[in-house]
Amino acid sequence: MNVVSLKEIRKEKLIAFFHEHWGSPEMVVSSGIYDCATLDGFAVLLDNGLIVGLITYVVKGGGCEIISLDSLEEEKGIGTTLIKEVEKMAAGNGWRRITLITTNDNLAALKFYQKRGFVMAAIHRNAVEKARQIKPEIPLVGNDGIPIRDEIELEKVVTVDGK
């Protein structure tokens, strides 16, 4: 897989990606409001330069928080590869904790992250209601008809070897 730093991708291309897959580059979660097109991260590119996977993160308190993760081709290891890149980067910088937030309806993400060593650390009840005050286009109902209300924070302790 061709993994590159987001610094190697034109900002306009990143903005277009986030508009297509998230509605906008703006991500609103209980930990803050982020412009994903300006964050650090990695992308998986096809030979023609098409983005098929992308991860963004911010550095926080001796660790990092994953803000977004997209894999456009399921079951090909793209998401896992991107997570491993963040883990290697975190270990290389001496950061020992990676966190992320997903919503209560995103059962596929909860399964994905737990299979990769993340554990549930906190539930932020009704956090999505607060996020909708800033970003009203966040849907009321998500995957499998589940009302989107809560955020679930997951974390993983990173060891020196990046695992």
What's a concise summary of this model?
This protein has 163 residues and is of the alpha+beta class. The protein has four helices and nine strands, in the order E-H-E-E-E-E-E-H-E-H-E-H-E.
Largest sheet: 7 strands, mixed
The Rg value, from CA coordinates, equals 15 Å
Neighbour order of strands in the largest sheet: 1-4-5-6-7-9-8
The SS-based structural class is alpha+beta
What is the number of helical segments per DSSP (H or I, 4+ residues)? 4
Structure commentary:
- This protein is an alpha+beta fold and 163 residues long.
- The chain has a single domain (2-157), classed as Aminopeptidase.
- The chain is 27% helix and 35% strand.
- It contains 4 helices and 9 strands.
- It has helices spanning 11-22, 78-92, 107-115, 127-134, and strands spanning 2-5, 26-29, 32-35, 40-45, 51-60, 63-71, 97-103, 119-124, 151-157.
- The strands form 2 sheets. A 7-stranded mixed sheet has the order 1-4-5-6-7-9-8, covered by helices on one side. It has a two-stranded antiparallel ribbon with strand order 2-3.
- β4 (40-45) and β5 (51-60) form a beta hairpin.
- The longest helix has 15 residues, at 78-92.
- The mean pLDDT is 92.
Question: Keywords, please?
Answer:
163 residues, two-stranded antiparallel ribbon, 7-stranded mixed beta sheet, alpha+beta, 4 helices, Aminopeptidase
Q: How is the secondary structure organized here?
A:
Blueprint: E1 2-5, H1 11-22, E2 26-29, E3 32-35, E4 40-45, E5 51-60, E6 63-71, H2 78-92, E7 97-103, H3 107-115, E8 119-124, H4 127-134, E9 151-157
